[in-house]
Amino acid sequence: MKLVRYGEFGAEKPGTIDAEGILRDLSAHVSDINGETLANKLDDLKAIDPNTLPEVAGNPRMGACIGDIGKFLCIGLNYSDHADEMGLDYPEHPILFFKANSAIVGPNDDVIIPRGSTETDWEVELGAVIGKTCKYVSEEEALDYVAGYCIVNDVSERHFQTKLTGQWTKGKSCDTFGPTGPWLVTADEVADPQNLAMSLDVNGKRMQTGTTATMIFNVAQIISHLSQLMTLHPGDVISTGTPPGVGGGMKPKPVFLKKGDVMELTIEGLGTQRQNVGQDA
């Protein structure tokens, strides 16, 4: 099932995309696509015949596919080929940082370069969304706690991230730096989260080409590890790292985003994002 949220920012409605690609409204069944819905009503939603749902007219804005996100957890340096391009050792444990919830926007909303930025970069990532309370779980059972998967663009300001003394979160949490969606594809429709092709283009030029098969820590290992440290709640999002081709790793010199650029991101089976890049005044 492909779950979506559509409409104006802050007033999104729940919906689903049927087999023909038609957007249908779920407002009669749930108030939002959020942690409560994933924990308590997901099976009921899957049982609905999409043909009985009203079609949504026009081409409304798509919001982030999860509402009321509790925690936005991100894993850094988690693809072997990305670590290789950056000339960095593989981490012994998953590297964790947080993205502020105020960074979350829809999959096709503008990404705005913040004031003072000189190194705003792109990162296509697989997002895993927790569907039930998760604490001290094993790797073998970890995927049972995933409600679904989505695309995340972990937009990053490298100077803020590495030169402003502190945690990576400084360069990861600027407004609009968390496009999420377009769909939350339920876990039963993703046969193997470790075998998904992924790509990112800037202005029509392919920058990132990868596969989730090259993760250093797979989705199950990440969830198990995090659950030893904190309780994961329904609606929490885990962004699981990026493959090679980020602007900061370009040779002979880095390439970063500028006003007027267009990013397009795709992960196999999870849809496509497209963002225009603007500049904060």
Topology:
Blueprint: E1 2-6, E2 13-17, E3 23-25, H1 35-40, H2 42-46, E4 72-76, H3 80-86, E5 95-98, E6 104-105, E7 111-113, E8 120-121, E9 124-130, H4 139-142, E10 146-153, E11 156-157, H5 158-163, H6 169-172, E12 178-179, E13 184-186, E14 197-202, E15 205-211, H7 219-229, E16 237-239, E17 262-267, E18 271-279
Parallel strand pairs: 4-16, 6-12, 7-18
Antiparallel strand pairs: 1-2, 1-13, 2-3, 4-5, 8-11, 9-10, 9-16, 10-13, 14-15, 14-17, 17-18
Brief description of this entry?
With 281 residues, the chain is α+β, with helices and mostly antiparallel strands. 15% of the residues lie in helices and 29% in strands.
| Uncertain stretches | none
Q: In order across it, which strands form the biggest sheet?
A: 3-2-1-13-10-9-16-4-5
Biggest beta-sheet profile: 9 strands, mixed
Total number of beta strands: 18
Q: What overall form do the CA principal axes indicate?
A: globular
Q: State the order of secondary-structure elements, H for helix, E for strand.
A: EEEHHEHEEEEEHEEHHEEEEHEEE
Report the β-strand fraction as a percent range: 25-35%
Radius of gyration: 18 Å
* Helix/strand/pairing category: alpha+beta
Average pLDDT for all residues: 96
Q: Helix amount, in percent?
A: 10-25%
Distance between the termini: 40 Å
**Tally of separate helices:** 7
Oligomer: single chain
